[in-house]
């Protein structure tokens, strides 16, 4: 330990009993039962994310096995001065009967052979000799193979406890010889509770929001939570506050994110750019800002879908901008996330990360005008039904159809399109085009860069022509007919009214 006597929170608060192991109820109850019933396995395999208690659980199990009160009772608890000699020496890492091996640095076959030799010597003071092998997935295949036989039939006093963060890298031959336990991420609320208790013990004043933020940031790892907590406690001088954390760690505050989203929702790009500049100038790292902004839009999306849990949203639901929430639907919010996730990916390869960010912000300012591919398809489907209705009124007059083909589509023609309820998109486009006052300009591509497939054009063309040529033909049942002319005007006309389609 450091000369100053300072001990990091993670080591100081390493759980020593099953009761202290938080968030792993299933593991705890199963291990306890097997201890009570005397069903001790030769080998255990603990898997799960880092910092969620695998090594701690292995030590607790080792303590239980060698506790002077017997395995049934679980390890001694209480102050270190009150526990039995075996429990104490194991906690201090001084027991000769509990051997901890780091699989990452002792991964060769020779080291495995050494274990196999040592296993033959019985324990010194406890009932069991326990091998805890951490990061076991790092062992070489040869090392695994050398160990197989020993794991399957060790001397009765031997217990292996393997721990890994990468279960899929552990060979099936090993897995099938072990009792497996999957450790889970620790819930944010549980982490927050533990931090709260520690603050009370240490006499630290802490805002709930601040502890919640630490818990959320550690994404289920208790060790990460403790490490972050220590860092924050070191600059907080006895009072942990959200504001100070944001300032010191360069995190974008929710107020700023709300303001930016509101500017975007109002299509106010000058304000959005100014806010972006302000946030970056305040010293927040660009990547961090993109992460925070992405998290913010994700929360909006969750809120929009009825999720209100603070642990998922990152903040209380009531703190999010109502204006931004009202402006966007799920489709627009998904698109915002796409834009920002893309932005993050692009940052590292870009000529300028800042340009990437500003482009993303710019796209966000016209988000509410964005049309998704599925909406575009809906518009096309509506247009098809409009086309059907138009075809039946104009049907039978091939000459006039062919004559019209030479002319540009006029505003009048657009205006006579039937105002079927389903054809809103087409009508909106017609209105836009009329407002422009001249032949409708055809957009070169849809906002998401897609255009209608050639196949679809051909199908529309063939159907339109067949219907126009034959009064009796059912409108949309002309798949067998050959197109007689390329693109009858109605087709072009209707397609051009759908925002973002390309008419060739
Ligand atoms: N389930 C848990 N309950 C309480 N503290 C935990 C838990 N998991 C981890 N910790 C804390 O994190 C530190 C590291 O835990 P450890 O058991 O070594 O994690 P792992 O082996 O899963 O990476 C411990 O010292 C302890 O302070
Ligand atoms: Mg570990
Ligand atoms: Zn004991």
Can you offer a commentary on this structure?
The chain is of the alpha/beta class and 504 residues long. The protein has four domains: 9-182, Rossmann fold (3-Layer(aba) Sandwich); 188-249, Helicase, Ruva Protein, domain 3 (Orthogonal Bundle), CATH 1.10.8.60; 254-369, Zinc Finger, Delta Prime, domain 3; 373-497, no CATH class. It is 53% helix and 6% strand. The protein is built from 24 helices and seven strands. The protein has helices at residues 9-12, 25-36, 54-66, 85-91, 109-118, 141-152, 172-175, 188-202, 208-217, 222-236, 242-249, 254-265, 269-281, 286-304, 310-313, 322-327, 330-347, 353-365, 373-394, 398-405, 411-415, 424-436, 454-469, 489-497; strands at residues 43-47, 98-102, 129-134, 158-164, 179-182, 205-206, 239-240. Strands 2-3-4-1-5 form a five-stranded parallel sheet, with helices on one face. A two-stranded parallel ribbon has the order 6-7. Helix 6 (141-152) links the parallel strand 3 and strand 4. Helix 3 (54-66) runs antiparallel to helix 4. The longest helix is centred in the C-terminal third of the chain and has 22 residues, at 373-394. The model is unreliable at 395-452 and 464-485 (pLDDT under 50). Residues 54-55, 134, 163 line the site of magnesium ion (MG).
Report the biggest beta sheet as strand number plus sense, adding barrel if it closes: 5 strands, parallel
Range of helix content = 40-55%
Strand order of the largest sheet: 2-3-4-1-5
CATH topology of the largest domain, which one? Rossmann fold
The CATH architecture classification of the largest domain is 3-Layer(aba) Sandwich
Large-scale geometry: elongated
Amount of beta strand: 5-15%
